[in-house]
Amino acid sequence: MAARQSGLIIPRVKLGTQGFEVSKLGFGCMGLSGAYNDPVAEEDGVSIIKYAFNKGITFFDTADVYGAAGANELLVGKALKQLHREKVQLATKFGISRTQSRDFSGMIVKGSPDYVRSCIEASLKRLDVEYIDLYYQHRVDTSVPIEDTVGELKKLVEEEKIKYIGLSEASPDTIRRAHAVHPITAVQIEWSLWTRDIEEEIVPLCRELGIGIVPYSPLGRGFFGGKGVVESMHAISSLKTSHPRFQAENLDKNKSIYDRVNNLAKKHQATPAQLALAWVLHQGEDIVPIPGTTKIKNLDQNIGALAVKLSEKDLKEISESVPADDVAGGRYYNGLDHFSWKLANTPAKDSKIST
Ligand code: ATR
């Protein structure tokens, strides 16, 4: 399989209109702490983050909920010690709290001002930094008016604990109301060739408000890299049991999507992962995807995707090779439909539900 090589300089772009400059490609650190595979050894996790930084990726994404007991933030914090802190754009998130249970039933969304405050203190400590560059609300707490949550985030900006505010999986109404309290710099949301439901409303809204978009799972959680198709499902047993698109019956249907993208990739001397990523990268200057990987080889390929140049005609052809109706299975994990941006509205400010 051909793969574009990555001897290129990673461009710098502005996310949002508040002056936040990042590398055009970010790095999603979640998988290093075992989202899809077993967690990597600490020294390997630190090495890959350092490698990415040395290649020009400076925008690193983590969250307090990734890994057991804050493991992913702790790992990123360790890696940061070996980088230039001021040259890194560090993004983390609060908002999903875990009970004892490690399965999805143990995930609770919280967004009260007190909770925000306790989370930032814990994240700063785990990361061992003085400030966070971009602090996202990971999921929207539908019982707390968004004005209250963002009001507290605004105080964190004033106190210089965070520089910029982001939202993840927020509805259009929530984005608009949040932005009225304090400028929102970025919205992180799923966007890839097989998950395109944000294109109608969220993308135009972010452009109208000057908010950057950070697509997560730009490789379809590894599907466009061949996971479950050319690579065994063994490596992604967590997806096999919990994600509709990777369940046997749906995956069988989805394999034809992979084949089509793979054929187009050959035409562009790229791997399917590179083509899928290049397609996301081409959606606009303000789009900064954060693919995750545990392997240097794949990281190099992802950087190489920046060298894949696609014309309008190419983009149309690639888009049309993955029609929404051909994608079998919902885009989000079984039992977590309520985590979707479509349901992420909050009560009006003066009608807070008492809990
Ligand atoms: P998420 O945002 O949920 O982490 P993603 O970025 O769409 O999802 O995909 C991450 C998955 O793609 C990981 O399983 C990663 O596997 P490895 O750790 O084995 O690399 C896989 N992946 C990332 N880059 C890849 C590439 N260039 N080729 C193949 N698989 C890749």
Order of helices and strands: EEEHEHEEEHEHEHEHEHHHHH
Architecture (CATH level 2) name: Alpha-Beta Barrel
**Over all CA atoms, what is the radius of gyration?**
19 Å
Total number of β-strand segments?
A: 11
Task: Categorize the overall geometry.
Answer: globular
Strand portion, in percent? 5-15%
Output mean pLDDT: 93
**Strand sequence of the main sheet, in spatial order?**
3-4-5-8-9-10-11
* Structural class computed from helices and strand pairing: alpha/beta
- What is the helical fraction, as a range of percent? 25-40%
The total domain count is: 1
Heteromolecules bound: 2'-monophosphoadenosine-5'-diphosphate
The biggest beta sheet is recorded as: 7 strands, parallel
Look at the structure and name the CATH superfamily: NADP-dependent oxidoreductase domain
Which stretches are poorly predicted, pLDDT < 50 over at least 5 residues? none
CATH fold assignment? TIM Barrel
How far is the first residue's CA from the last residue's CA? Answer: 55 Å
